Amino acid sequence: MKTRTLAAAAAVLFVAGIGVGYSAQKLPPLTPLYQGKPHKEAARALLEVALKQAGKGSWERIGVARVYYLGGFKAEGQAIFDQILAGKHADSDVYRIARVYQEAGEWQKAKPLFDRYLAANPEEERDLAEVGAYYLLAGDRATAERMFDRAFAIDRENPYLTARVAGAYLGVKPQQ
């Protein structure tokens, strides 16, 4: 009986400890970070919080880095991208970072990352079509059409895939 009581007490203390630890991690109110502040100051303060909230999640960190990068804080965004790419990361991380470079109008930075991703994932028809569209939009029709051919060889019946390719011929960037 004494063992059960000790085990129950230990469990209660453990759960209470988790609650205390969790509440200690809660963020202070965010309102003072942005209300009445100049836009860039508010954004920077919120991005610092967002990066903490992202923790070690690569997709979350890429999302924060995207806002830094596209929002005029390129160095901060680039530092996050570099940190992710320097460590162990998924192929999808490479693809997501390439998309940010593409969105920023930096095809020469995006292209090698897209190529690297597709070399590791040659059967991703949707991604082949998207990257092919970027090639076409950048003026490389031959490479784009090779990618389109590969995508359609995998799936000829996907209307989203076909529309994505059609859009590229009309200058429409792929929807992400």
C-alpha Rg, in Å? 23 Å
Q: Sheet with the most strands?
A: none
Rounded mean pLDDT is: 88
Count the beta strands: 0
If helices are DSSP runs of H or I spanning 4 or more residues, what is the number of helices?
10
Tell me what portion of residues adopts beta-strand conformation. under 5%
Helix and strand content put the structural class at: mainly alpha
User: Which term fits the overall shape?
Assistant: elongated
Oligomer: single chain
Low-pLDDT segments, ≥5 res: 5-13, 18-24
Protein name: Tetratricopeptide repeat protein
TPR repeats: 91-124
InterPro entries: TPR-like_helical_dom_sf (IPR011990), TPR_rpt (IPR019734)
Keywords: TPR repeat
Report on this model:
By secondary structure, the protein is an all-alpha fold. Helices cover about 75% and strands about 0% of the residues. Helix 4 runs parallel beside helix 6 (about 90-105). Keywords: TPR repeat. It comes from Vulcaniibacterium thermophilum. This is Tetratricopeptide repeat protein.
Write the layout of secondary structure elements.
Elements (H helix, E strand, L loop, with lengths): L1 H24 L5 H4 L4 H16 L3 H13 L3 H13 L4 H13 L3 H14 L4 H13 L3 H14 L4 H11 L7
Summarize the structure.
The protein is mainly alpha-helical.
Notable traits:
176 residues
